[in-house]
Prior knowledge:
The structure holds 2 protein chains of 2 kinds.
Chain A: H1 4-9, H2 25-41, H3 45-54, H4 56-62, H5 65-74, H6 76-90, H7 93-116, H8 119-128, H9 133-161, H10 172-177, H11 180-203, H12 222-244
Chain B: E1 2-11, E2 19-26, E3 31-35, H1 42-49, H2 52-55, E4 59-67, E5 70-71, H3 77-80, E6 84-87, H4 100-110, H5 115-128, H6 144-156, E7 162-166, H7 174-189, E8 193-197, H8 201-207, E9 211-216, E10 219-224, H9 226-230, H10 233-238, H11 245-255
Parallel strand pairs in B: 3-8, 3-9, 6-7, 7-8
Antiparallel strand pairs in B: 1-2, 1-4, 4-5, 9-10
Amino acid sequence: MLDPMGMVEIFRTQVGETPYSKLNPLTKFILFASFIALPLISASLLMQIFSLVAQIPLIILSRSERRVKRSLKASLLFIVILVVLNYLTTHSLEFSLAMVLRLVSMIIASAIFMTGTSPAEIGDLLTKLRIPLQITFSFVIALRFIPVLADDVVMIITSQVSRGYELEKGSFLEKVKRLVPILIPMIIIAIRRGHQLAEALETKAFGATEKRSSYVVYEYGRGDWILLIYAAIIIVVGLMVGTLTPQFQLLPFRY
Amino acid sequence: MIEVDGVTFRYEGSGVNALRDVSLELERGKIYGIVGPNGSGKSTLLRLLNGLIPHFYRGEMKGRVLVDGVDTREASVAQLSRKVGLVFQNPEHMFFSETVYEEVSFGPKSIGMDPEEIRESVKWALEEVGLWELRERSPWSLSGGEMKRLSIACILSMKPEFLAVDEPTIGQDSLSKESLSQIFKRMRGEGKGVVIVTHDLEWLDELGPDVVFVLRYGVVISRGGPREIFSDIRNLATNGLIPPYRYIVDSLLEVG
Lengths: 255, 256
């Protein structure tokens, strides 16, 4: 049920040629932000269902059905825990379901964004938003290295399993202890990679000038405008749905 | 004996089969070479032998793999590690102990060997790869060649019947390659089966394998003795493999 590698998949950028990937990064970011904000407008179940349904066109445009499915499958354990905890504290099944759908909506929004946006595009986008290069670059590198480290972890686990090591043996505490032969090589490899990266950046004169130049020009096409209007309509409709439906009392168990 | 019987495997999330209807038999006391271009399914084939596929890597598998008559689906990777030891391409992925000695004893401890047997097998494995003198050193302080030999010792110490090695010569200098050849030849002499995946045909030719398999697009396109396979220069070249030098010379002389 627990599939950490599947959860890492959410952050694995994998840009193929899809109508979504060809959009301007800013459009993709606005769509992403809209679909993260939409389920937060109200806690009603109707609102969460609306957020989910509104994302269907984007899933189709980004051809990310497979990734969405895998991300959701990987998060299944957390989804179940969330439903149970919410139900135990609020005694409202509807509220619990709404909270889970809110999480699912956000997972789908992230999966779509990561499927169709390369780390370089995210970097350019953050630079355009006037975020300092040091922060932008660290963020992009972190994003870029998640799949690399995930691949390392797979190789480390398979290496140790091939040495007769059983990860799943014993109680919960024992299982945590049994992670040591996985964690130590992972940390050492991550530090080594960091060091190599720093050297590579030095050799490529990173930070030699105050202002880096760029040759990539992002244009706005017809698709961008259509989807920006779509995002605006979704938010407006979302606000209306939020005000029309009866609100839950947030955390009603406190009253 | 290891029998790979009509295996087709597709990784989860992939649209293509990594292996397609592969059948082969591997016996003790022989060295097998598996060659082929990148993405031809060589590493996938190795992962089949010790049960990492289908236990660890998810996907769709048809056919079966029998290790001494036991279906790999019915035994855990830990159980299979006593029969088939898999040495990975990058040794750094396995090291976590403070000393070379402790690192080599990890496998035997995992499979529950007796303390006396552990001491014996660690000493034997380290002597086989020529690292007994360095047993108190940290694995991370070793050179690339020594690390490779240590990774082999880590697997040998579990006394597997078969040794499956993924790309042993990558990043190794000629002296290291020579010492790897010596280790594998000794293993063969001791009656173990050695399966080697490599791009380095020159080295493989010097090692003298008993059988060579050529893989392409997940299919075994040819199999036979080294002379038969290596002298088919056209076949190797079209598969992105550089034939051993002496076979190129022979072929040029024939043309000349």
